[in-house]
């Protein structure tokens, strides 16, 4: 429950998803380049179900990550009857950035 008394929705996230994402992002991480992915799934019965990880085309640096060809993402979501539930992100951060953004490790809508 939120402080306003609104019930939070349950999130179902495959246990392997974060490991798979880290494998996909490994080379960029070693090279000091950010990587982002979109958590795709369905909403039903008040539950957010992540069923796929989409790595969109992107341009990234050591401190930015911008998706390109967003229309492809829209087509993939539409073709699979999915919604974007959130995102997962890896970047090289200094100690201060890690401390400041710790609570944003997973950002779910």
From TrEMBL:
One of its GO terms (cellular component) is endosome. SUPFAM superfamilies: JAB1/MPN domain. This is STAM-binding protein-like A. It comes from the Eukaryota. It comes from Zancudomyces culisetae. One of its GO terms (molecular function) is metallopeptidase activity. Signal peptide: none annotated. GO terms for biological process: protein K63-linked deubiquitination. Residues 16-92 form the JAB1/MPN/MOV34 metalloenzyme domain. Pfam families: JAB.
């Amino acid at each position: 429950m939120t402080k306003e008394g609104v019930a939070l929705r349950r999130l179902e996230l495959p246990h392997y998803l974060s490991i798979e994402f880290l494998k996909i992002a490994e080379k960029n991480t070693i090279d000091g380049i950010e990587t982002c992915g979109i958590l795709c799934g369905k909403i039903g019965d008040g539950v957010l179900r992540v069923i796929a990880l989409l790595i969109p085309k992107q341009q990234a640096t050591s401190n930015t990550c911008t998706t390109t060809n967003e229309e492809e993402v829209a087509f993939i979501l539409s073709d699979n009857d999915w919604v974007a539930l959130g995102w997962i992100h890896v970047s090289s951060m200094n100690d201060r950035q890690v401390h400041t953004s710790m609570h944003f490790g997973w950002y779910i809508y």
